[in-house]
Fold these 2 entries.
Entry 1:
Amino acid sequence: MAQLLQQAIDGLTIGSIYALVALGFSLIFQTSGLLNFAHPQVLMLGGLIGYTLLTRLNWPFAAVLIATGICCGAVAILIDVALLGPMRRRRASENSLIVLTIGIGIILVSAAMLLWGPYSLPYPQSSPQPPLQMAGVALSWKSIVIWLAVLMTLAVFQYFLRRTRLGLAMRAAAVDSEAATLVGIPIRATVTASFGVSGAMAGMAGVLIGSIYYASFEMGATGVKSVCAAVIGGFGNLPGAVVGGLLLGLLESFTAVNLSAEYTDILIYGILVVFLLVRPQGLFGARRRKV
Amino acid sequence: MTKASRVSRFLASIVLGSCIGLSAFNPLAAEDNPIKIGWIGALSGVLAPYGLENKRGVEFAVDAINAAGGINGRKLDVIYVDSKFDAAFAVQSVQRFALQDQVAAVLGDISSALTVAEVPVTARAQIPQLASLAGTPKITAMGSKFIFRPYPSVLLTYGALGNYAVEKLKLKNFATIAYNDEGGLASIQAFSSAVDKLGGKVVASEVVPVDTKEFKGILAKLRDANPDALVVAAAAPISGLIVKQVREIGWNVQLLGHGGYQAVQEFRDVAGPAGDGMIIATTYAPGYYTHPEAVKFVNDWKAAHDGKAPRDLEAHGFDQVNMVGWAIKKGGAEPIKIRDELSGLKNWPGAAGIYTILENGDVKKDVVIQTWKDGVLTPLELFAVK
């Protein structure tokens, strides 16, 4: 029993990382209809920028978190304005835009490797807190922190989309951009804002993940699994992205321990295929009807 | 044939003739030309720290040899190629070494997978290849007579670790946790067969997915088997996380490891104090060998690097070049002759120990047992490999 609980904690912690990235994918998708493959690399950039601010400039953690959020928000906005914007103006197809985001992601990884080197960079640990021990189960603080981060990101995104003017504009733009333009919603600005918000949150998530494990140019590699999480949860559905991420984490953890590590990827991507065939709208997504 | 085409044919034959003539009588063509050597390894990507380390050692040896007038009067010219961790590109590059550059020997690769891809090329071209770090037993089991691995394979290091754990540490039951890749799996296999022979037993074994970062559930399962020690076989940062989490679940088990994975600063940086006390079978410890060649290397290296001690792959890179140099000095710069000499290399004193090349091209040399003490890698003893 203790072993199963431990596996569940592991799964929820890893799943939370998938969820954090999946949330960003979903937010951008919900507002712009674009699958932004550069998004996980903005998280990676956040982890590395955070490392530099902490180790070179010795900034306090909270300041690092905020500054990295601003930097990564700016990078994401730059990606939208300078690279995706001109393509959109030329009415490039959705496929071209997706390929462009893959390219941008690769450029970000290569640039990070040049700037920070190919090393794993652990954050300085001021005073490592011993994990909570209960009946043979260890619950580390890092797991609690990352779970809280997922809930907070979800809450921020939900509030932003449902309660703020800009958020409502984003949703309107996503549903029907032409109608939104007709009623005076500045589409371009709202899409750019969604890039900024998701970039900022990804950057902060990167700092958090870096502080728990380590930062490295490979941090964005979880991106593909996060897309799976978003698809399983229902692409564009924010709570769905979280549920999808946690499910994948749990599945990975239980499979690795009780079956074999070799089967985890087969199972995860197998489930993705099943979902795409049987329930393409995911767990929580609404089925899109052709008009 | 028109007049113009006759003239152009005449001119072409003159140019062609002069080229052939020049190459035949070029005073630099034969003995005075530098001896070309191809180096291939990762200079970018995840394996770049290892590739760069090896390259530094190679450069140091080449500079020293060339400064002393070269080998048999000929200087060494090393062509460095980044394998980019791309098997197709690596194979193409080694082909270019053989066909275009006409190298006397190939140094590298440092990745197991890429070396496995390159071995058939050097075998076909009949050029000796000296791999480094690439640890899988497969490399020297492919039947090539041209592959040498002066860097101890995982069979040697994990085998020695098994021997040391049973004979010296008097441990009996072991649990293993390995990366789900070729190196990780081969390491555990080598360890298991070594302890089996001595009456020890691997009582629990787990492989972990290469991209996970949470291992506590797997570790709790291993703990239930109640082993005397846990063997960790995964790349440095992942090993660091595993070891950290062993202590986080309150498991005070003896940890065992291998130089390539855990005798690197990256491991200790990630593991923190949890890495202290781990027993690690390593292939090199600067200043731990007393034969003159090793002592001179450490002194020369420190003098050239602001007192900084050489690292494992730097010492082995240095030895790779000098081994080829030794073979050329004895038998000449023909690839076949170099291969013949290397095949008979026995008790050769290098910077990283006393080498003997085995029949399959692998090396036999002692391992240095080390441990992390307050964040400093500390040698414990030299352990003879059986």
Note: Chain A touches chain B through 42 residues (CB under 8 Å).
Entry 2:
Amino acid sequence: MSAESLCRRMRLNLFLSFSKKGDCMNEIITTIENRRSVRVYKPEPIQDDMLQSIIRSGLNAPSAANQQSWHLTVIRTREIIDRLSDDIKQTLRGSPEKHNQAYGNSSTFHVFYNAPVVILVSGDESSYLPMADCSAAIQNMLLAAESFGIGSCWIGLAAMHFTDTSKNGDFGIPATHKLYFAVTFGYPEGRKPLAPARREGTVNFL
Amino acid sequence: MNEVISAIHSRRSVRRYRAEQIKDEELEEIIAAGLYAPSAVNQQSWHFTIIRDKEKIDSLAANVKGLLHEHKNEHVRGYAKIEKFHVFYNAPAVVIVSLDNKALNSLADCSAAIQNMLLAAESLGIGSCWIGMTSVYFTDTSHNAEFGIPEDFQPRFAVCFGYPAAEKGKAPARRAGTVNYL
């Protein structure tokens, strides 16, 4: 096992009686625990077969009553990504919240961190649990990307620009769906930091 | 295809379990995987309650089932009529997942955490099922104290875990037309 694939889990002292060793049980758990949001990307595009595998991983998420209530819009065109980032920043400037205004006013801030691939994730609001379905699909995509050495970031800010479905047509999103999230993908630039500490007291045993 | 991709694609909901309890260290791996999910502005807005006591699991299952008769969805009402139906499919371990409604998007945080737990379980040969219908019992936070759940958290899902007692079926076909490219 290479140093990079060693599990970086910090000692969790909220658990069961046995003491935790420094490594995880397998590659899947290591991938889950090592994955971090990436906010600096190399400009080069990601390989198409990997992108397809990431998308299929999203589509294979479980969903409430198998409704598969997600819609994915894959954007690989720099101009479209940049324009959407600019449009979202304009919306942020009009937000009543100061930290959103600050993002909107920052000349260096790019909503998608200049990533070469952005996937917009929207959910069918007439289904049981579109937010849960879409979130499970996103988590699958983040882990699939990590397994290929591709960085990713789950973006919530984009939803502020899609408060209703009036912009759906521009992006080929079905009229029944509401945009919840965007996810950025690309090869990471720089080293991954450690995960922030886990909050204490989030688990209890009966 | 690497192990991560193959776990994502091979995982299915399991609804028949062996009675044997999963190992402590396996449960810990699963819970740790949930805790390491990403969350909106790192709020980690989840609370997990682990139940491995068969009586407690059966009692919660019976309480939930008792309320399904009144459910607005006909399909869900149908479960209440099935004598053998057990809300947790007689799984030996159940994790109740509660949302922090003060957080930015706890439903998303908790869903990502659950998906991590399902995949970690799959990687260990442990079956799982993501259960939504427990919400008929936890319509408010009045049952929180008996489950040791902080009072400002809303129980929303349960996930059951155990060794599978049957072969996995095939995944249902994916809906067409759910991806477009710009």
Note: The beta strands of chain A are 70-75, 117-124, 151-155, 177-186, 203-205.
